[in-house]
Amino acid sequence: MSVARYQAQGPGDIVPGRGFELVNLLKARQGQLTLLELENGATFRAFNSAYGRDMGDEWEHTILN
């Protein structure tokens, strides 16, 4: 992955955070089984994701199912 187009989050629409490319990858895979492995070795299986970003946060938060 290349460097994301980070923008500071203010009020209004969600703008790209540090996880912009990962969010886009997960959105593109909606409905497909996706295996995720975290740095700590934990693994997750997901089919869908939703994301958001709180004002002042650099990273998006993601919900998987």
Distance between the termini: 24 Å
Shape descriptor: globular
* Sheet with the most strands, sense and barrel status: 2 strands, antiparallel
Summed over residues and divided by their number, the pLDDT gives a mean of 90
Beta fraction: 15-25%
Number of strands: 4
- The class by helix and strand makeup works out as alpha+beta
Radius of gyration: 12 Å
Count helical runs.
Answer: 1
Helix-strand pattern: HEEEE
Fraction of helical residues: 10-25%
Contiguous runs where pLDDT drops below 50 for at least 5 residues? none
Looking across the biggest beta sheet, what order are the strands in?
Answer: 1-2
SSE arrangement:
Layout: H1 20-28, E1 34-37, E2 43-46, E3 49-52, E4 61-64
Antiparallel strand pairs: 1-2, 3-4
Question: How would you describe this structure to a colleague?
Answer:
The protein is of the alpha+beta class. It contains one helix and four strands. Strands 1-2 form a two-stranded antiparallel ribbon. Strands 3-4 form a two-stranded antiparallel sheet. The radius of gyration is 12 Å and the shape is globular. The two termini are 24 Å apart.
